[in-house]
Write a structure and sequence with these properties.
With about 575 residues, this protein is of the alpha+beta class. Among the domains are: about 200 residues, FAD/NAD(P)-binding domain (3-Layer(bba) Sandwich), CATH 3.50.50.60; about 100 residues, protoporphyrinogen ix oxidase, domain 3. It has 15 helices and 22 strands. α2 packs parallel to α14, α3 packs across α14 and α6 packs antiparallel against α7. Its cofactor is FAD.
Length: about 575
């Protein structure tokens, strides 16, 4: 029996799904009051509104309005990304297209395959599971509702992702929101504080003005000290940013003379949103990269939601593009072993179904934790691979809760909870067209840091989540179960998600071209400037494809040598 006034029967279902190519790094559990035999106490609606108006609180309805796509096509980073994309389309057509075997159909693997196909080669993309997307995978439950691995936000400062949408002709699938960052106020339950970026101001003035106008989270002395502390990063550029990898956010702030309250008020929430960990663990490089993009690009921090589930609305268009150019995408093709030839290079990818897949080149686009388990013993002491030991995936939990009514104390936007156990959340019945419901809310919440919770029961996780939601929705949700009623929930656990961006990780991130001839890596953990993100995954795929295209003559020569050697046997 829980302490919330509702109990969860043992019939609640749990299943394990697979992230990458090994078993059980992601578990998906669900509970439902109507369909899974759970008993959930009825909640009654409270009409005792607080004296202060709640944000978005209306007796009629919450209106969702999407905003036009921002003018990002002429920014330096967008044009740079567009040029990189064009090099694949415009590269000389190969006399003999390479067959490139890629393990993992997350964004990194899909990106690698897409751009190899654009360059005239034939990718063979193998996905272990029956669903596309990797860390952006999603599943449909028996009621037809979708639940996702994570709450995914597409920023204006994601130039390679934005180019990818344009190249696929699906720009209209991004639902852009107002240019704001919205934080809950723990000291004032149910209230929010906003950072609004003025459309008429260029960067970085729009960001500076947004910070200066907000007097609820930071005092003027704190703003001034933070601004002074940030000056070296703004002046020093990317080289300065990368040099701060050895410091945690907390250490850097104290070194720069920034008050701890700035970290507590702003950067706990930001750290958890970026990497699911707190500022005492997160490398300051991660924060500075985000701040640089947000402050240097007018629309860099503007956010968009995908208009539906990621496998169908984003991944499938990539697959269709790959297949239209002669590539292949195979689901339920789990990599069991990287088989080596006598010279230590890859002979084939052996799948769990016993089949061997051979190609001219091979790519691992699996998460770093899975890659380390798949590495052949002969490779493990090579410095390039040994450095991967420092890179470890961070646990994260994604929670979905369907309520029996429309919650009003919310926005059509991403919200920073500033909770000790929750990161960001959104009412997906407002923010996403496919999930839209005018009568009932579905909250999707990122539960982080999750290290201490990943092995806890779903009942414990839902109970803790409801206690936090009672603070965010004090007039509508109660921890004792006396208000809004849960209709059902899904809990998705990923024990090893994106790599944990702790200090001194940067030197351990590998280039996409490995020291093993014909073997390459793709993934957000590989070397690229956007770290662990969707943008980082897509860019890593482009870099991986670029390395293979550049190595075309070497790969062909190697194949000819092998053929000649086989003929002499």
């Amino acid at each position: 029996m829980s302490h919330l006034g509702y109990s969860f029967a043992t019939q609640s279902t749990s299943k394990y799904v697979l992230l990458g190519n090994l078993s059980n790094p992601t578990s998906v559990s669900s509970g439902c009051s109507e369909f899974l035999g759970n008993s959930v106490r009825n909640y009654s609606f409270s009409k005792e509104f607080g004296k202060k108006q709640r944000i978005g609180y209306s007796p009629l309805k919450v209106v969702c309005v999407d905003y036009p796509r921002p003018e990002i096509d002429n920014t330096v980073n967008f044009l740079e990304a567009a040029y990189l994309s064009s090099t694949f389309r415009n590269s000389p057509r190969p006399k003999k297209p390479l067959e490139v075997v890629i393990a993992g159909a997350g964004l990194a693997g899909l990106s690698t395959a897409k751009y190899l196909a654009d360059a005239g080669h034939k990718p063979i993309l193998l996905e272990a599971r029956d669903v596309l997307g990797g860390k952006i995978a999603a599943w449909k439950d028996k009621d037809g509702d979708w639940y996702e691995t994570g709450l995914h936000i597409f920023f204006g400062a994601y130039p390679n992702v934005q180019n990818l949408f344009g190249e696929l002709g699906i720009n209209d699938r991004l639902q852009w929101k107002e240019h704001s960052m919205i934080f809950a106020m723990p000291s004032k339950p149910g209230e929010f504080s906003r950072f609004d970026f003025e459309e008429v101001l260029p960067a970085p003035l729009n960001g500076i003005w947004a910070i200066l106008r907000n007097n609820e989270m930071l005092t003027w002395p704190e703003k001034i000290k933070f601004a002074i502390g940030l000056l070296p990063a703004m002046v020093g550029g990317q080289s300065y940013v990368e040099a701060q990898d050895g410091l945690s956010v907390q250490e850097w702030m104290r070194k720069q003379g920034v008050p701890d309250r700035v970290t507590d008020e702003v950067f706990i929430a930001m750290s958890k949103a970026l990497n699911f960990i707190n500022p005492d663990e997160l490398s300051m490089q991660c924060i500075l990269i985000a701040l640089n993009r947000f402050l240097q690009e007018k629309h860099g921090s503007k956010m968009a939601f995908l208009d539906g589930n990621p496998p169908e609305r984003l991944c499938m268009p990539i697959v269709e593009h790959i297949e239209s150019l002669g590539g292949e995408v195979r689901l339920n093709s789990r990599l069991q072993k990287i088989k080596l030839a006598q010279d230590g290079t890859v002979d084939s990818f052996l799948l769990t179904n016993g089949k061997e897949v051979r190609g001219d080149a091979y790519v691992s686009a699996a998460p770093v934790d899975i890659l380390k388990l798949l590495l052949p013993d002969e490779w493990k002491e090579i410095s390039y691979f040994k450095k991967l030991d420092k890179l470890v995936g961070v646990p994260v939990i994604n929670v979905h809760i369907w309520f029996d009514r429309k919650l009003k104390n919310t926005y059509d936007h991403l919200l920073f909870s500033r909770s000790n156990i929750l990161s960001v959340y959104a009412d997906m019945s407002l923010t996403c067209k496919e999930y839209y419901d005018p009568n009932k809310s579905m909250l999707e919440l990122v539960f982080a840091p999750a290290e201490e919770w990943i092995s806890r029961s779903d009942t414990d996780i839902i109970e803790a989540t409801m206690k936090e939601l009672a603070k965010l929705f004090p007039d509508e949700i109660a921890a004792d179960g006396s208000k809004a009623k849960i209709l059902k929930y899904h809990v998705v656990k990923t024990p090893r998600s994106v790599y944990k961006t702790v200090p001194n990780c940067e030197p351990c991130r590998p280039l996409q071209r490995s020291p093993i001839e014909g073997f390459y890596l793709s993934g957000d953990f590989t070397k690229q400037k956007y770290l662990a993100s969707m943008e980082g995954a897509v860019l890593s795929g482009k870099f991986c494809a670029q390395a293979i295209v550049q190595d075309y003559e070497l790969i062909v020569a190697r194949a000819q040598r092998e053929l000649a050697g086989a003929g002499n046997v």
